[in-house]
Structures are given as C-alpha cells and as structure tokens.
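User: My collaborator sent over this chain with a note saying "see what the structure looks like." That's all I know about it. Can you take a look?
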Amino acid sequence: MKVSVQNITIGKNPRRYFDPSDMENLEQSIRSNGLIQPVVLRENGDGTYLLVAGERRLRAYKAIHGDEAEIPATFPEDGNADVRVLSLVENIQHANMSPTEEASSAYELVLKLNGDMDEACRLLGWKPYLMKQRLALKSCHPDVATALDERKILLGHAELLVTLSQDRQTKALKSVLAHKISVADLKKQLNGFAQELATAIFDKSDCMNCQYNSDCQSSLFAETVDSGRCTGVSCFADKTTEELQKRANELQATGKYPVVKLVSADNEGTYLPVDEETVGAEQFVACQACAHFGAGVSESPAALGDITGSLCFDLACNNTKTAAFAKQQSAPARTAPASATQPLQTSTAGPANPVGQTTTKPAATANAAPKTEITPSGAMLTYRRNAWNIAAKRFLVDSDHTISIGVITTTLATRNTSNAKIKEAAEAVFGKQPSIDDAWKLADPAAAGNKKHGQLHQALAYAIVLALDPGEFSSLMAALDVKIANYWKINAEFLTLLTKNDLELLVQEINLPATPKMFAGKKAEAISEILAAEGKGFDFNGVVPKVMKI
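Assistant: Without extra context I'll predict from the sequence alone. Here is the result:
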C-alpha cells in the first residue's frame, strides 16, 4: 500500500541526529533500488497517518520524489499495540542509532513497560548487560550525548566521561574536542585526578554501588579508570569535609578542648603546640583551662583526619609563657647549703613510739651530696595545681558569693581574664549561652534571693581562677587565704608521684616515725607503710608538705 507523504505526521523520534553522509547514501540507494523497506504507519482515523518507524526513509523519499509523492507503507498487525513501544523497538533494532540515542530509547521503553527490563530485553533482542550499559549512558551530560550522536567523540570517550559529575563532563568534553584527546589519553588523565577509595576517611558503605565507583563502572563499560577509584571528585570532597567536621564536632563535645579547628598548611601559623616541655608542667595545667587551648583536625592530605591535641591558639600568650619558662630553665641551679650535706639520720624510737623502731640510712658518698628536699616532677606540679584548683573551687562555693565578685573584680582590674572559659561557665549556669538581658536578670543585685545569683558569680570566678598563670594563681590564693589543708591531705595518689628517696625525705619533713620495714622493700611497700601510719597514732589532717605549697 502507498500513502501520500502529505498525510503522514511524524511523532516523537528517538533519533536526534541524522548524519548527512548517511542520508546521502540512503538517497542514492533509493534512487538505484527503490524503497526496499516500507515505512511503518498507523491510521489516525481522520485520513492521516502517524509514522511509527522509518523517518530516515521518509525524509530521503521526500527529498527524491517531492512532497506530493506516495510512499510504500505497512501497518502493524496488532491494531491495539502501543504505537510508542513499536516505534522504539523498530528504531532501536533497525535505525543504526548512536549509543546515547539507544540509551534514551531503551530508557523510555523500560518506562513504557512499567520497569520490566526483562521484557524490554526480549523485545529488543538484547542481553541484560547491554541494557545496563545503555541505561548507564543516560547519565551523560546533554553536550556529551550530542557529541556522540554527531560522531564527534567515540563510545569510549562517552563511557569515560559519563563517570564524571555533570559539570566536569562538560569541562572534560571541551578539552577532548579542542585537543583531539584519544580514549587512551583521556583514561590516563582521569586516572590522575580520580580519588583512591582506600584513602577515604569517611564511611564508604554508600560507595559500594555508586556510579562514581570505578569497580561498578567496570561492570558496565569497556573503558573505565583503574580499580578502586572514585571519579565523583566533588562528592568525595564533600564527604571528606563532612567527616572532618564530624570529627571536630565529636572532639568539641568531649569538653576537653575549648577550641577545635580544622587545620592545614593554610592556617598553620595561627596555632602552636603547648605542653609541659614548652611552658612547664605547672603553667600547662593553667593552659588546659584556657579558652584558647584546643586541638586540630588535619585537612592536609598526608595526615587527613588526624587529631592533634594540646594546641594553643593565642600566639602572643604562648610566646610569653614559652619565653618565661625558657628563662626559668636557664637560671643557674641553687646549691645546697653546707648544713644540708649531711645524710638523713632517723632517730631510734622509745617504747612510747606507737609505730615502731626506725632504721638508720647509710651515709652518702663523699662525691654525691644527698637531696635535702623534694624536687617536684612535672607530674607532681600538675597534681599540685589540680589539687589547688579543687581547693579554690570548694573555697569559692563555701564562701559568700561576694568573695567571688571580689575575685572577678580583682582579675578584671589586673587584666587576667582574657583566657578564662567564661562562655562555658555561663552556659553551665544558664543551660545555654545567655543574652545580655538574661545575664543581667541574674546578676542584678535585686536578684540576690535567687540561688543562681550567687552561682553565677562563683562559676565565673572559678573559670577565671582555673586559667590564671602560676604566679597570679599563687598570689590570689594567698590574698584569699585559701588553706590547702582544709581541702586536701596526703593520699596514695600523691605518694605514688614521689620517688622512694622522696618518700624518705617526706617522712623526715612531716616527722613521721619510720618502721623497720618502711624502706626495706619496694616503693609500693613504703607507700603502704606510710598510709598505715595514720591508723596507728599519726594524723595526716593539716599536714601539708613543702612540695604541695605554692
């Protein structure tokens, strides 16, 4: 049957590009051999016909015979068949379409079949893997699809480009077209910037079936980058940033560090390490209570995600404290007076001694003068400051809140509040960061009847006290007449920080009678003997060794 070409309407064609050379060859074939395969039509019911398949043939036929010609046509045997399905199947099977045109048509066909990929494969005569390959090309940027349609790039180019994000596809395509980059060279270039999944610091569960995972790509395309790589560079970067921030937030939530920042080579000049070796053990205790004490989560590739603690983000203060400690360390050591060179002698106790008989230590050698007082170690200095911090806290809590007001006023007047964790102290009282209005309502003298009125002063004062330098802290404790003996006494933790020789000096200093076996064995046995003395007539209450004084 022949139908006038004027009565044929063209529906949606999956083919987007008609190659001029192919069309010229088709026209030449029709001139020489006639139209071998008729177009496929369907009646519209009004004397016109809908083109189901054969737009290339219709175009070529009209170019040869004009718009008034009649063209051979056939009609589907199943009049109720879905015209769009027939059109898609016919075009994919016979129209020499580009892979991206096939991808769009296959996708539409699967949708028409309500997602039944098996039925789509049956109608097309495709293997399932080919269907997956073509559907994967649906992620091509329109510019990439057009370039493949117009035969400006090869399928290998498209398979590599589709593994990139949409914005990167267009950038890479421009480079491919401008420099005529081969498939092999494009693969090398993409390998260069693709991220190795093994280096990821984030949870890779979502990556296992991701389109940017090269291992997933290798099951779809002939051309892919090396195994174990992510071509979704932006996604990889976003996930990395999210993980870094997560680690920083978790570290901040511990409350150990007032400041937690992401650190890299770009901002490494904004912080310095701080520890006992740089500022001294006692100062380091104060540093840990400072509002500028913190930690960093590394953004640098070589140490990505690594956490570095004990950082100071107040460079001016750090330089001052470091210089002060260095000066202290370089000062000449004091020599022991002549009267202190005699070896420790313990007297023999009489029957009235409730603890027992003492032992006599051998004389020191002529070349080594024995220690006459305990030299505090770094650990002891840390312990001592922490013990005094506790004493200061209990003193402030036990005292009228006006004492805390005095502390605040004094430290403000001497500019010793800049490093205090004021924000944390206020949040502890209010349960949030208070506004000016909130703070005044509680600080107002008229609110003196409110329990939190005094607590606010005490919390702020304690936050300031914690961050004071050793010298200022000592001066303030003396001014407040804080007695460490009221809040602390000799205990096992304290004794453990001393050497065995220090324990002997301690026993002498506090006039504790030594038992025959007190220093006959190991240090642990000596500690047990010292602690046991309290239950045998010796009272540790009120006894403060020199090493615990500031």
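A starting point for your reply to your collaborator: Residues 5 and 196 are 58 Å apart (CA to CA).
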